Every structure is written in structure tokens, then in C-alpha cells.
Amino acid sequence: VRHSEGESASAKPWQRVEAGDATRMVASNTLSIALPLGAVVLDQVVLHPNPFSPNGDGVNDAVRIGFSVFKISAAREVRVSVYTLEGRRVWERAQMIASGQESVEWTGVDMAGVPVPPGMYVCTVALDVDSEDQGGTTIATVVAVAY
Fold first, then answer.
1. CA–CA–CA angle 36, 42, 47 (5° rounding)
2. Which among 79, 103, 132, 147 has the fewest CB atoms less than 10 Å away?
3. Residue 60: left (phi > 0), alpha (psi -120 to 50), or beta?
4. What DSSP element (H or E) covers 143?
5. Residue 132: its pLDDT value, please?
6. CA 41 to CA 66: how far, in whole Å?
7. Residues paired with 142 in a beta bridge
8. 135 DSSP assignment
9. Do 109 and 135 touch, CB atoms closer than 8 A?
10. What is the residue-averaged pLDDT of the chain?
């Protein structure tokens, strides 16, 4: 096999393919893409809509906190938290996730189920990984609540 796009096909080297498992970690009927050591495992945190207005009118009543997870081989815990600008945690959700696109929804209420006041909040997405040197295990962004 070889990659045939771009420069002339004759300039690209061939890669020999042999039958059987290359490693016991990945079955031969699956595709595994390896990232370099130290590559981020958590990225592309997107909040939509932002700002949002959880006033019960059925329009933009919740914010979807989407993110991408890379390079984990087993389910891990992700913790999505919302803090006031003073640093007081008002809401948190933890769930087990796998690699790929994931999302969590926040409806603008605190942990007691009471609507939060309008304003700016800090949303963090933290992924529990084994190694201290893994980049991108916590990402923070600002979310706005408007009524």
C-alpha cells in the first residue's frame, strides 16, 4: 500500500502489509491510530449556544459542552464543572467516557437545582488520565448565562 495523493506516485514509498496481528494490543480487524507521546488527550472544547438563556421558553435553555477525547484505550472519568468568577463551584457532572466526540449538557441550575443568576461562569472539563505528563487534561472556558 501507499499514499497516492499529492506528489507523483512513483516518489512515494510502498508499505508492505503482512497478514496477522502486529501486536496483541490491537486486533487485525480494527484500525488504530497512534499519537506521539505527550500529545493532548482532551481538546476542542466548544460550548453551544454561548451565551444561553435557561428561562424555560424552549429556546437556548441549555448549553451543550462538547469536547474531543484522544488516545485513551479504556473508559475514563471526565468531570465537567461550572464555577462563579470568584471560584465557587455551582454545578458538576462526572461520567465515564471513551475516545471520540463527547458532550455534557448544563441547564443553568446549581447542584441544588436552583437557577443560577445571570452572568459569566467558568466551565472546566477535566479528564482523569494515568500520567502526569499528558497535556490537555483540564481545559477551562467561559460560559455566559443571560435571562
1. 145
2. 132
3. left
4. strand 138-145
5. 54
6. 14
7. 122
8. S
9. no
10. 83
Question: Tens digits of per-residue pLDDT, 48-64?
Answer: 999 999 999 999 999 99
Q: What is the 3-state secondary structure (H, E, C) of 11-77?
A: HCCCCCCCCCCCECCECCCCCCCCCCCCCCCEEEEEEECCCECCCCCCCCCCEEEEEEECCCCCCEE
Terminus-to-terminus CA distance in the chain, angstroms?
57
Q: Is 127 helix (H, G, I), strand (E, B) or coil?
A: strand
Amino acid at 23: T
- Do 62 and 108 contact (CB within 8 A), yes or no? yes
In DSSP terms, 98 is beta-bridged to none
56: left (phi over 0), alpha (psi -120 to 50) or beta: left
DSSP result, 95-126: EEE-SEEEEEEE-SB-TTSPBPPSEEEEEEEE
